[in-house]
Each structure stands twice: as structure tokens, then as C-alpha cells.
Amino acid sequence: MRISYRPLWIKLAERELTKQQLREMSGISTSTLAKLGKGENMTTDVLLKICEALNCNINEIIETVPDDKERFRNY
Fold this sequence. Notes:
Elements: E1 2-4, H1 6-14, H2 19-26, H3 30-37, H4 44-54, E2 63-65, H5 68-73
Antiparallel strand pairs: 1-2
Helix pairs in contact: 2-4
């Protein structure tokens, strides 16, 4: 399993916010934003800053998805 930030990108689109605006609202760095864009692991501190900025719960910005290897193992 891995973490996906797809729900975060959907939420930003729904609110018509850019990634830059998210960065400014939450106080995260540009390098952290780049890591989010690449789907890298984030600390809960970073995720909570984003949640505070967007006034949402953590389950609204991340989801778990199977790894490609796991996906094919089930078939």
C-alpha cells in the first residue's frame, strides 16, 4: 500500500485554489509542495498544516492505494 494525495488535488480544484495558494495558506515550503506533487511521504505535521489551512480532516486529503505489485498479485 502507498499514500496518494489525489483527494488533496481534487479538493484544491473544487475550491479553485492553486498549489501556490495552498503553500501560502498552509506555510509549507516549495520543496514540501514538490514532494507532495511526486507522491512522496509526508510527516503528519505537514498534513495537519494543510488540513488547518483547508479546514478539513486528514482523510479528505489522502487515501491509500495498492502498489502496482500488489494490484497484479491479486489476479
